[in-house]
Design brief:
It contains 17 helices and no strands. By secondary structure, the protein is an all-alpha fold. It is globular, with a radius of gyration of 21 Å.
Length: 411
Amino acid sequence: MMKKIEREQQTSLRYLFFTFLKIGAISWGGFMALVSVVQKQLVEKDKKVSDEVILDSISLASVLPGPLAFMVVSYLGYFLRGLKGALVSMIAILLPSFFLIMVLTYVYFVYGQLPAFTNFFKGVLPAVAAIIISVAVNMTQKNIKDYPQIVILIFSGLGLIFFHSFYTTAIIMAGGGISGYLFYRRSIKAGPETKKSKPDFTAKGIVTSTIVIGTIILFVWFLPNIFGGEYEKKASLIKDISFTFSGMSLTLFGGGYVIIPAIQEIVVNGLNWLTTKEFADAIAMGQITPGPIFISATFIGYKVAGLAGAVAATLSIFFPPAFLMIFCSHFLDRIKNSKTISAIFKGLRPAVIGMIFSAAFTIGKGIEIHWISIFIFVAVLVSAIKFKVNVVYLIPVSGIVGMLLFYFFPA
């Protein structure tokens, strides 16, 4: 693996911003879909990181609370360019979905309905499923070396297909790690010690970060007192939004689809910020916009406190767990040369690949069976695996093809 200082010299902040901005604009389909696009761009096309780095980031994100895809992006930004890279990557991946959902939210509250994107997404969904499969196949070829890993891959994929909950994900990750330890602890050799650049989390860095984060928390807490008068009520709402979404993001495990019921319980039944229908529409918007499904928080924040509420909800749901991910990744980098950790990760990686296969199956269940869907799926799968066509073209072209074909040949 390249030393950190070498990675930083080879990766510019400009590259990270425009790469993740582009990825954020085309990544429909949830966590694994976004990660699949990231893998195609950073591993296969630009060769900035290895599959091992992607798999490690998924493994770490899977055992931490918060939006998984966004945390993987924060990890990769940090891996390539330190804290600045993480911040630039996180902002860039959010911008397209944030602006799009703001437009949809405005239209929703003004006109009471969503734009008609049905045929476009009938084309996008089979393309997303095909891309996820192509990524899983590519990772299998590179990382699965023996029968124990094949068994772990199969069981993890089937487990997530038949049992949907955070506990299933946790059991799969724990089972993969334990299996890796049992199978490989005696045969694996510890990785060579490498000279590392000075870590970002020095004592001075920790103190500075603590002061900055503490200042932000205190500012938000006393926001109603700072903005008195007619602005006091809105400031109080922003404070409530910030602490509510930060608390949820740091305590709920399992990714967007798994924690939707928990968020509904808090914002609909507990706080009465949304009606049940509005919450369902918020989740739908999160699904029809590219990027992380947690972007539904933007809709909720806007409903409660307008544009300021939308920004507060978006930052609060994404950034706290991302910083936790960055902090934990620092220690992961330190222990990866351990024989024990190396053995565990030999079991975790096939478990993650199995979950990627299961994500394609889950998305595939929601695809309408039609010759157009089958045609798009096969065409994208062949294009991605055999011809290595960039997903930047595959996803939007599939959406346009879906719009045209389903218009002329309706189901």
